[in-house]
Amino acid sequence: MSTDTNDSEDMVSLYAAAKKIYPRSVQGMFAYWRWGVVAITQIMFYGLPWLEWGTRQAVLFDLEARRFYILGLVLYPQDFIYLTGLLVIAALSLFLFTAVAGRLWCGYACPQTVYSEIFLWIERKIEGDRSARMRLDDAGFSAKKLAKKTYKHVVWIALSLWTGFTFVGYFTPIRELVVSAMGWQFGSWESFWVFFYAFATYGNAGFMREQVCKYMCPYARFQSAMFDHDTLIVTYDTERGEPRGARSKKTDLVAANLGSCVDCSLCVQVCPTGIDIRNGLQYECIGCGACADVCDTVMDKLGYAKGLVRYTTQNAMSNKWTPKQTLLRVARPRVLAYTSILMALVIALGTSLALRTPFKVDVVRDRATLARITENGALENIYRLQIMNAAEVDKTYQLSVDGMNGIEIVTDTQVKVAAAQAHWVVLRVDIPYGSAEAGSHKINFDIKDTSGKEVVHEKSVFLVPR
After folding, report:
1. What is the domain count for the chain?
2. Predicted local confidence at residue 2, as pLDDT
3. pTM here?
4. Are residues 237 and 311 in the same domain?
5. How many CA atoms are closer than 13 Å to the CA of 333, on its beta-carbon side?
6. Any residues with CB less than 8 A from the CB of 236 and at least 6 apart, and which?
C-alpha cells in the first residue's frame, strides 16, 4: 500500500494468479520417445503387482510382516543397507544424466510429467486440441460444456483411483485388495492411502501440472549446479533464427534481412510449462523437446534446414561444432567420474546381493535370567536367537557354540524355520562349574544351514558370577 501527495491510495496485489497453459499437441521424434517412456513406466507400474513369483506376488513390500519381496529376493529390516545403496545409485544416476543431457528425468520419466501427459491426452480426446479447449473454457455455461467437463473429470478420477489402488497393491497383496474392494471391506489403512494417492494424482496431474515443476520441485532450483557448457540442452540458434519475422515460403531471407524463425510462437504453444525457448535457457524448461519437434515441422514446411531449436551444448553453439564433435565432449572428466563411481556402486551392490547369506541371526542374552548353577552342577546362561529364513523354502539349521572350555548347548540344536519366516528359539548354554574365571567371556554361535554350506557366526558373551 502506498500513499501519494494527493492522499489517494493504490492497492498493490502481492499475489499473481497463474495463467492457465493450454499445450498444443505435437508429433516428432522427441514426442515418440516421451510416449515410449510413458508406456514403459506405466506398464511396469500397473503390471508388476499382478506378476506372480511362485505362490506369491512378485513385488510386495509387506510392512506388517516387515518383509520386502522383490522377485526372488526376500529382504528384512536388517537389509536396509540395500535400500540405501539403491537410493545412492538413483541419486548418482540423476547427477550423471543431468550432466550429460540436462533434465532428461523431468522431461521423460518423472511421474509428474508422465501423469500430466496422460491427463492432457484424455483432455484433448474429450475437449479437443488447444484452440478448442480455450474456446470451451471461455464459453458461457451450457449443457455441452457441462457434459464434456463432467466426462473428463469422471475419467480423471477413475484413473486416479486406479492409480491409488495400484500403489497400495505394492504393500497389500493386490488380489486381496480386489476381493476387499468387491465386498466394500477395505481397511482404514488401505482406504486412506488409496484415496490420498488418488487425490494427489488428480490434483497434481489434472490441475497443478507445470506449477509443481516450477514452484514445488527443488530439482529445478539446483539443476544449474550440475550443468556446464558441454551439457546437452534444448537450445534456440539465435544466430540463425534472428531477426525473426513472418514471411512467405518464397521470401528471399537475405533481401528481406530475416532469419529462419518465422515468429509463429508454436514453440511457446507446445511447451508444457509455457516458456519461450528463444529467450535462452530457463529453469522452467524440463527438456522435453516439444519445441524442437514443432519447430522442425515448421522448417520442413518452409523448406529450411531442421535444427533451429535442437538439443546441443553452449560450447557447440558458440564454436559451431558438428554433432560428432559435440558427442565427443560427452566423455569429459566430470561425466567419467560420475560413471566410474556409479559403476563401482552397482557392481558392489550386485556382488553383495549375489553373495548374501539367505538367512540372518540375532542373538540376545536373556537379561531377565541370571547365570545359575544347574542340578547337574554346571553353570548356565540363557540366550534367545532369532533366525530369519530369507529363502522361499523351509529350512533346518544346526546350532553350535564355542569360545570356552567345555561350553555346549544343552537344548535342541536343530531348528526348523518355515519359508520366508522368522523364528525365535531359547537356548540354554552350559560350562563346567569352576572352569572359567568370574567375568564376561566372549563366545561364538555358529548357525549352519543343513541343506547348504551357508554358516552365520554371531558373537555374544557368557557371564560367570563372582
Report:
1. 3
2. 46
3. 0.81
4. yes
5. 0
6. 261, 267, 277, 278, 280, 308, 309
